[in-house]
Amino acid sequence: MNKNLTISQQADWNLLPWSQIEKFVFSLQLTIYKLSFRNSKVELHKLQEFFATSYAAKLFVVKQISESRTVLLQDINSFKSLNSSQKLHLALSMEIGLSTLPFNLKNELINFYDSAKNQLLYLALRPEWEAYSKNNNVLCLLDRSANSMIQSVVYDLNLSYFNRRLYIATFVVEKEELNIDFVLNILSTIDKFNTHIQHFLRNQKDNKSLFPNLDISNFKLDIKDFDHLLSHIVLLNFEIQLCNIIYDRNHFRFHRYQDTIIFFSDDLKNLSDFFEQAIHWLSEVGLRYNKKKTRIFTKQQSFEFLGFEIVPKFLVVRDNIYSQIYLNAAKEQRKLVLAKARYILRSKRKDGTTRAKTNMPLYKAIVLINPLVVNWRSHYSLFVPRSTLDQLDWLLNEKLYRWYVKRLKKNRVTHWNKKCIQIVKNKKRIAQDGYILELFNEFNP
């Protein structure tokens, strides 16, 4: 693509070869990923700098940001108001390390422009740190499966080493006053990137959370943006540094999902020593642990992790103790998914009270509620007992029934059974106009 593209050259943004641009960006990221395993910093940094100045990468980022659901509506409207040449000029003029817009649209597109530069830096750094993470932990830096994490925790809790005695600690990491020099030292990247990262960290809002609150009803539990990439990188360094001090891994286990950390041991002193060193490391980086969310348990106590309630069960047979971990959805998560379904069915008044949306058709309610059920089921269905899922199905069906019959004055049950119930695989299901309400207790392929 011609670097000297001017506004007078009326190129069409929508007719750019986007499939080729995406392939080129992916091939560059793949090369960065492979090069990271060779520990050749000079070649790696040259390639990352080339990526950050690549016109294809800049175009790809601007298109990606403009299609993102997280971008503010006014920023999208401002972007759509530009003609094709202005969009191209905005993309091609993007420069990591500069805080000014390429032309006089500062008030309208400053948030959009900053987001695009952050995303460009995210795409350049992520392959390097994915490789570094895999090289050290054999795990993905982002997109860690919450279900696989739960399986690992349960497996470790059931190990024979911990049958007699076990101490469990959980805590949540949050920001205090981030040590920017420490973060830049961890990243060890090029000067141009350091300037942008330093400016980015200094202008962050006073948000103490490293990650958003875990929302099971949202299909994507891991956020993919520059802010959370930096958080993952810092906590990856935390894992590597502290796990190296563990001498007997058979009697100590450590797991992290985003900013939630759980570790356990059969020796209370080892647990205490590890906890002290963890606090010391966090204080150096400018992080801290949330005291209200920190707990220490024995194996006889139930606790919550990633929206699950983990309950130990014991069986004594001829003086031998057998233990097994029992999993269930946390009470708060069960209430939350039903509350969200209720929120869909009700509208809020000016005085703060709510009333049922009796003018909304049933099929529309089904369309809005189904994603909540499917996402919740995908997280819990492999572990949660059927009795819990059956109870949630009954409660959800009851909410829908009570909401729907408010508009009817007579023959409520008759109308409901004739118009709103279908037989699907020998089961009565709430349905209308071809839309069928999903069940919590349903096979999830």
Automatic annotation (TrEMBL):
Q: Which UniProt keywords apply?
A: Plastid
Q: Describe the location of the Group II intron maturase-specific domain by residue ranges.
A: 350-419
Stretches that traverse the bilayer: none
Q: Would the keyword Lipoprotein be found if you checked this record's keyword annotation?
A: no
Keyword Plastid carried by entry: yes
Reverse transcriptase domain span: 248-310
Q: What are the Reverse transcriptase N-terminal domain coordinates in residue numbering? A: 13-92
- What is the protein name for this chain? Maturase
Q: Which organism is it from?
A: Erythrotrichia carnea
